[in-house]
Amino acid sequence: MSARPRPVVVGSGLAGLTTAAGLADHGCLLVTAGSLTEGAASMWAQGGIAAAVGPGDSPALHAQDTLVAGAYAGDPATIARITSAAPGVIEALVAAGVPFDRDGAGELALGLEGGHSRHRIVHAGDHSGATVTSTLGRLVAALPGVEVLERHTTVCLVAGASGEVAGLVVRDASGAERVLETDAIVLATGGLGGLFPHTTNPRTALGQGVALAARAGARTDDLHLVQFHPTGLDVGRDPMPLLTEALRGAGAVLLADGRRFVDELQPRDVVAAAVWAQLQQGRSVVLDARSVPDVATRFPSVAELCRESGLDVAADLLPVRPTVHYAMGGVTVDARSRTSVPGLWAVGEVSRTGLHGANRLASNSLLEAVVTGRAAAQDVLGDPARVVGWSAVPAPEVASVVPSERYASRRGSPSLADVRSLLGEACGVLRDGPTLRSAVEQLDPHTGDDVAYAAWLVARSALAHPHSIGAHRRTDDPAVREEIPA
């Protein structure tokens, strides 16, 4: 039996790290555009991980909350599978050394966030993502079975004779390209919030994984379902600082011209639409956290973000606006994180699992990252013929990997700023058919460029869905008018 190359994981956020850790005993290569964990959105997550580990809670209740928050558009089997896995995920992370917050009795301290019917957010201060991801990052960096290839971007995937994965082209910081031959690639590239003008995501989150997979023929779904977080700190920074959902869970309230206008603990799509409606009417919207006990010490990361912008979280009203935060759609995968392309898996935010439906429930994303990363590693290792070893050859020597003219970058492609402005106008909190159609038409000639291609896929998906659901709100669908508070 011939030797087969090592699997390659693309991306070093929580999902990619989890996958790499699961593959370590058999060997894998982890490719990341920066240094390990650099630019990973999971490093920026403030809230925590949702898990039914408290008294009076259960995975069934967690699943019900997830289904409701997602406008009943999620897949019940997927929701049940992932919420049932949540307590075990917490146990595994604790065993890996993640220092979650504890109460006076030494039990896990559980927070409350919008859309949850129970206190079930396991957290590490208000910097849970950084704590969990960096802990896993240190673990993976020490594993001899994981080779990390830093500062390499993935240019395209290599297709075999029957459309299966045969490798990937990577580019180093000098611009030199080479081919990594493998028959197993796990995409863990994150989301696409950087395509929008107002986002809490790293500006490098440009939907690269969606573009790579779609060009290779992989199915994508629900790309129009993009979550807007209701409380981005509106101080002119890019990316926008995030005022975590947990602030509202702790008692912070939203005010428009001094008047409270919404139940702050409703799902994010409802609260974001309510904030947007107030802003569109010319009102000033702020988050008032002044009555939250010990707010600066309970939320030190938020306090620091506010200080950097000249604000005091304990004394000032904080200006907010909805900002793109998470992509519910992505590369369609099954329960084993497999895409429709043989040899290609997708994990974390780049994937579309069916967990989130039309609106992600708060603190379900880090949970999904771990569960999908584990599933991918287990499925890759299900092939007993896989052994250690990978090879690299110069790109020009493999004709089949050179992108066709259709996919090559073209002169005249819109700038990132132009794409962000266009997508922000067409695919904001509220959308309409004519504006979406115009965006699709403007982007269509430039789909050889990956950024424009990813934006085109999002706009085209939004245009193809004329009815409002969850985070996708069409003003030309009469039903949406009934859901947006005046």
Automatic annotation (TrEMBL):
Co-factor requirement: FAD
Keyword field: FAD, Flavoprotein, Oxidoreductase, Pyridine nucleotide biosynthesis
SUPFAM superfamilies documented for this protein: FAD/NAD(P)-binding domain, Succinate dehydrogenase/fumarate reductase flavoprotein C-terminal domain, Succinate dehydrogenase/fumarate reductase flavoprotein, catalytic domain
A matching Pfam family: FAD_binding_2
Catalytic activity, EC: 1.4.3.16
GO molecular function, one term: L-aspartate oxidase activity
Keyword set includes Protease: no
Pathway entry: Cofactor biosynthesis; NAD(+) biosynthesis; iminoaspartate from L-aspartate (oxidase route): step 1/1
One BP term from GO: 'de novo' NAD+ biosynthetic process from L-aspartate
Recorded catalytic activity of this chain's protein: L-aspartate + O2 = iminosuccinate + H2O2
Top-level taxonomic group: Bacteria
Domain FAD-dependent oxidoreductase 2 FAD-binding: start-end pairs: 8-366
Function summary: Catalyzes the oxidation of L-aspartate to iminoaspartate, the first step in the de novo biosynthesis of NAD(+).
Family: Belongs to the FAD-dependent oxidoreductase 2 family. NadB subfamily.
Protein name: L-aspartate oxidase
Organism encoding this protein: Nostocoides japonicum T1-X7
